[in-house]
Write a structure and sequence with these properties.
The complex is a heterodimer.
Chain A: E1 10-19, E2 22-32, E3 37-41, H1 48-56, E4 63-68, E5 82-85, H2 97-107, H3 113-122, H4 136-148, E6 154-158, H5 166-183, E7 186-190, H6 194-197, E8 203-208, E9 211-217, H7 218-223, E10 225-231, E11 244-249, E12 253-259, E13 270-272, H8 276-287, H9 290-301
Parallel strand pairs in A: 3-7, 3-8, 5-6, 6-7
Antiparallel strand pairs in A: 1-2, 1-4, 8-9, 10-12, 10-13, 11-12
Helix pairs in contact in A: 3-4, 4-5
Chain B: H1 2-40, H2 56-99, H3 101-105, H4 112-142, H5 164-183, H6 186-208, E1 216-221, H7 222-226, E2 242-249, E3 255-256, H8 269-275, E4 280-286, H9 291-319
Antiparallel strand pairs in B: 1-4, 2-3, 2-4
Keywords (chain B): Membrane, Transmembrane, Transmembrane helix
Protein name (chain B): ABC transporter permease subunit
Protein name (chain A): ATP-binding cassette domain-containing protein
Chain lengths: ~300, ~325
């Protein structure tokens, strides 16, 4: 285990994973710096879960390499400074919450029992309750406590908010972000709901079709794009192809996301800094295979 | 890790232990019951038909008293290993995969191999030891009933005592574990355990067991080999021996065939043999004293198959966990 502070929390180089049905992840290169809260965004099947499983060592790469805090994952357990919360929050159903915490201490050399107990307590989950009787929100809080009890430097959460009601979403996110603020740990968080991530994430990793489409600091990425809104007539010829990420138009109005700063003053056009959601959605739509692009072209031509 | 594995398997183990203890208690009870019955009849210590007081009529009385028990017990003891394999072995990994908890277990600071080995030892070890113990108790408990079970080498007497009960349990458990690991479905793993266990039991027990060693051979005239009445009911070969082969010879010592269905039922077997031209008969058999050698050989065979299956499950885990 190396804890040299200069090393990225998570880094991939030429990372690829192939299943029988094809490549789930291909030629991924990125670095997640320490202390960042990174949103892992992508459509279903983009390779998000595969990437996370590669980081934990549950899967081994077909190509390239992934490094967790500078180390390659090995089969003798997940990196001691990495905690992983899987999508379905797997916990032993027959155990009580107390027994689950004891399992955490039995399965880890480094385990902060007082801290994990405190997290469960502040979530208001009774210790004697069986895991199978917990609500979705309570279960997530216990699973989160199990992950944080390892005192990780990097915590990886796969869709932690899926199947939670809005109130529980907010509570889980608050609980997580409070610990992040306290410890300064690095977070990699995947979610379908971009609105959940807005204002929380300062780093973005956008996957589509098994490839990294966008990676970097959220502020830099937002500052590096402009959302142009103007009349739809002749919109498609206004911008050079190489800077257009995606353009959409209705009868009257065209919305074009472009890379770089807004082109010189154009009458009738307004330039905005995109929101994280607008930026991500435009990139995801543009990454869709030909059918999607065809549709966009048709709309633009209409 | 040991505590976690134990906590996961606690219920199965307690139920298994209770079941095994109940069967053991019944066997011990019948041992004492049989011993006192034999003392009452003055045949204490009689293992087979022999000289007075172990006469054929006294032993027949013993048989009729205990034949229900002796025919019922094997059904229980033959089922027990496969039941334990189905309920302790099959879900061991299959349920983890079904509920996704292997993702939890394998993302802690415990390596795959240790996770596998600990679950295996905690889930299967105690049950196998208990079954081995039950088998050893069985040897002691069934001893007075040696005549009723027709000796310790014949089916089902052989399968229901001694070392093999432990070995059968290990095999059934290993089939359950390997099937659960490969198919990741508890129900499928349980069905495969039942099916595959029966196949191996029949193939090894039925097909291979007579060939573990070479049998003893004895040859005699038709009169020698069939004259049980002259010997007070004593068979030509010990009646608790396991007869595995017969051969028939004519006057000139040539091998002939004998067709038992050619006998009309009213004549003695001796006259029927003579009528079909048989003058001499040879028998191949294993005496009951070979019991422990057979037990060791059969246990080794079963444990070898079990080890191969466990290796298969280890390979499967190494190759793929998601």
């Amino acid at each position: 285990m190396s804890t040299t502070d200069g090393v990225a929390a998570l880094a991939a180089e030429g990372l690829g994973k192939r299943y029988k049905r094809g490549w789930a992840l291909q030629n991924c290169t990125f670095e997640l710096p320490r202390g960042r809260v990174s949103a892992l965004v992508g459509p279903n099947g983009a390779g998000k879960s595969t990437l996370m499983a590669l980081a934990t060592g549950l899967l081994t790469p077909t190509a390239g390499a992934i490094r967790v805090l500078g180390d390659s994952p090995v089969s003798s357990g997940t990196h001691p400074r990495l905690a992983f919360l899987a999508q379905d929050k797997p916990l032993y159903r027959g155990f009580t919450v107390e027994e689950m915490l004891r399992a955490g201490s039995a399965l880890n050399q480094e385990w902060d029992h007082t801290y994990a107990r405190g997290l469960v307590e502040s979530a208001g989950v009774p210790f004697h309750a069986r895991i199978s009787t917990l609500s979705g929100g309570q279960r997530t809080r216990v699973a989160l406590a199990m992950a944080l009890g390892r005192r990780p430097e990097l915590i990886v959460l796969d869709e932690p908010l899926a199947d939670l009601d809005p109130l529980a979403r907010e509570e889980v996110m608050q609980a997580l972000m409070a610990e992040v603020a306290e410890t300064g740990m690095t977070v990699l968080l995947s979610s379908h709901v971009l609105a959940d991530l807005e204002g929380i994430c300062d780093h973005l990793l956008l996957l589509a079709g098994g490839r990294v489409r966008l990676a970097g600091d959220v502020e830099d990425l937002l500052a590096g794009h402009r959302l142009m809104i103007g009349p739809s007539q002749g919109a498609e010829s206004r911008f050079p192809d190489e800077i257009v990420v995606e353009s959409r138009s209705t009868q009257r109005q065209a919305t074009v996301l472009v890379r770089g700063h807004a082109p010189a003053v154009m009458p009738g056009w307004e330039a905005h800094e995109p929101t994280l959601e607008e930026l991500a959605m435009a990139h995801l739509r543009s990454a869709r295979p030909a059918a999607g692009q065809g549709a966009t072209a048709e709309v633009a031509a209409a | 890790m040991i505590w976690v594995a134990w906590r996961q398997q606690r219920l199965q183990f307690l139920v298994s232990a209770l079941l095994i203890a109940a069967v053991g208690a019944v066997m011990v009870f019948y041992r004492f019951d049989a011993v006192s019955f034999m003392e009452d009849r003055g045949i204490a210590g009689c293992l087979r038909i022999g000289s007075d007081p172990c006469t054929s009529s006294a032993m027949a009385a013993l048989s009729s008293e205990y034949k229900t028990y002796v025919s019922f017990l094997p059904m229980v003891l033959l089922c027990l290993p496969v039941l334990l394999g189905m309920f302790a072995g099959a879900p061991l990994f299959a349920r983890e995969f079904e509920q996704g908890t292997h993702v939890f277990g394998l993302t802690q600071s415990v390596g795959r191999r240790r996770w596998w080995a600990t679950k295996l030892l905690v889930g299967g070890g105690p049950v196998a030891v208990l079954m081995l113990f039950l088998g050893v108790i069985g040897v002691w408990a069934l001893k007075p009933l040696n005549h009723v079970t027709r000796g310790p080498l014949l089916t089902p007497g052989f399968e229901t005592q001694g070392l093999v009960l432990g070995a059968y349990t290990v095999l059934a458990f290993a089939i359950g574990v390997a099937a659960g690991m490969l198919f990741r479905n508890t129900l499928a793993a349980m069905a495969i355990t039942l099916g595959l266990y029966l196949v191996v039991l029949l193939a090894l027990g039925g097909g291979l067991r007579p060939h573990y060693f070479s049998p003893e051979r004895t040859t005699g005239t038709v009169a020698q080999s069939t004259g049980e009445s002259e010997r007070g009911g004593k068979s030509w070969i010990p009646d608790d021996a396991w007869r595995v082969g017969s051969a028939y010879y004519d006057d000139e010592g040539r091998k002939v065939s004998f067709n038992p269905s050619g006998c009309d039922g009213t004549e003695s077997i001796q006259s029927c043999l003579t009528k079909q031209g048989v003058r001499q008969q040879a028998a191949e058999y294993y005496p009951a004293t070979r019991f422990w050698a057979f037990q060791t050989a059969e246990s080794t065979a079963f444990l070898t198959v079990a080890a191969a299956l466990l290796a298969l499950s280890a390979w499967s885990l190494r190759r793929r966990v998601l």
